[in-house]
Amino acid sequence: MNQDQLKKLVGEKSVEFVEDGMVLGLGTGSTSEYMIDALGKRIREEKLNIIGVTTSKRTARQAQSLGIPLKSVDEVDHIDLTIDGADEISSDFQGIKGGGASLLFEKIVAINSDKVMWIVDESKLSPKLGSFPLPIEVIPYGSQKIFDRLEKKGLNPKYMIDPETNERLRTDSNNYIINLHLHEIDHPHTLANYLINQVGVVEQGLFLDMVNTVIVGRQDGPEIIQVKR
Ligand SMILES: O=C[C@H](O)[C@H](O)[C@H](O)COP(=O)(O)O
């Protein structure tokens, strides 16, 4: 199986955890797209009563096209389960997310969820975080000052570029993303605290102590890992 087939495998596997009546956080990205397709199919075929809370405009468009009823995070009193992709997962189940620029809404939905599930192909696993660039969302005003500070600190920042316009990418909230090319993150909690305390940083892509279940797409089938918290 290639990477795409592994993503489909875990996307389809994850919706087996969905129960009638659930409020579900719907992640963003190519793996989540497979999950949302499979969810749409289950809702249609089994006439399930599901409310979706989306994590991006892109996911909202897909869910709407499949007829999945949606509410915003502020309109629900709880979210039973959020299913989302991830860019990198360490051996102690910390994660980097935001490679698709949706980390802000993804984190808001995740921290308001009773349970969080990540679905990834096996290439996303690594002993330590950092091989995937760490995205941080910053408001445009003053962003160059943040960029300069990060550079001075040796964090190797680069603006995320929109491949369609070749300009700095704008998130759903009209902010910029700065990617930190770090290669290895020794102390994720310390780094997360430093980044979130920079004025102008809206959110950062380290998702720490957050996931309850990981489904990994492997050649011999999906592996389901329950993370002890
Ligand atoms: O902002 C994007 C999200 O964090 C995605 O969940 C992450 O980038 C994984 O995406 P994909 O499933 O396309 O690899």
From TrEMBL:
<feature type="binding site">
    <location>
        <begin position="84"/>
        <end position="87"/>
    </location>
    <ligand>
        <name>substrate</name>
    </ligand>
</feature>
<dbReference type="GO" id="GO:0004751">
    <property type="term" value="F:ribose-5-phosphate isomerase activity"/>
</dbReference>
<dbReference type="InterPro" id="IPR037171">
    <property type="entry name" value="NagB/RpiA_transferase-like"/>
</dbReference>
<comment type="similarity">
    <text>Belongs to the ribose 5-phosphate isomerase family.</text>
</comment>
<dbReference type="InterPro" id="IPR004788">
    <property type="entry name" value="Ribose5P_isomerase_type_A"/>
</dbReference>
<dbReference type="Pfam" id="PF06026">
    <property type="entry name" value="Rib_5-P_isom_A"/>
</dbReference>
<feature type="active site" description="Proton acceptor">
    <location>
        <position position="106"/>
    </location>
</feature>
<protein>
    <recommendedName>
        <fullName>Ribose-5-phosphate isomerase A</fullName>
        <ecNumber>5.3.1.6</ecNumber>
    </recommendedName>
</protein>
<comment type="pathway">
    <text>Carbohydrate degradation; pentose phosphate pathway; D-ribose 5-phosphate from D-ribulose 5-phosphate (non-oxidative stage): step 1/1.</text>
</comment>
<feature type="binding site">
    <location>
        <begin position="28"/>
        <end position="31"/>
    </location>
    <ligand>
        <name>substrate</name>
    </ligand>
</feature>
<comment type="subunit">
    <text>Homodimer.</text>
</comment>
<dbReference type="InterPro" id="IPR020672">
    <property type="entry name" value="Ribose5P_isomerase_typA_subgr"/>
</dbReference>
<feature type="binding site">
    <location>
        <begin position="97"/>
        <end position="100"/>
    </location>
    <ligand>
        <name>substrate</name>
    </ligand>
</feature>
<feature type="binding site">
    <location>
        <position position="124"/>
    </location>
    <ligand>
        <name>substrate</name>
    </ligand>
</feature>
<keyword id="KW-0413">Isomerase</keyword>
<dbReference type="GO" id="GO:0009052">
    <property type="term" value="P:pentose-phosphate shunt, non-oxidative branch"/>
</dbReference>
<dbReference type="InterPro" id="IPR050262">
    <property type="entry name" value="Ribose-5P_isomerase"/>
</dbReference>
<comment type="function">
    <text>Catalyzes the reversible conversion of ribose-5-phosphate to ribulose 5-phosphate.</text>
</comment>
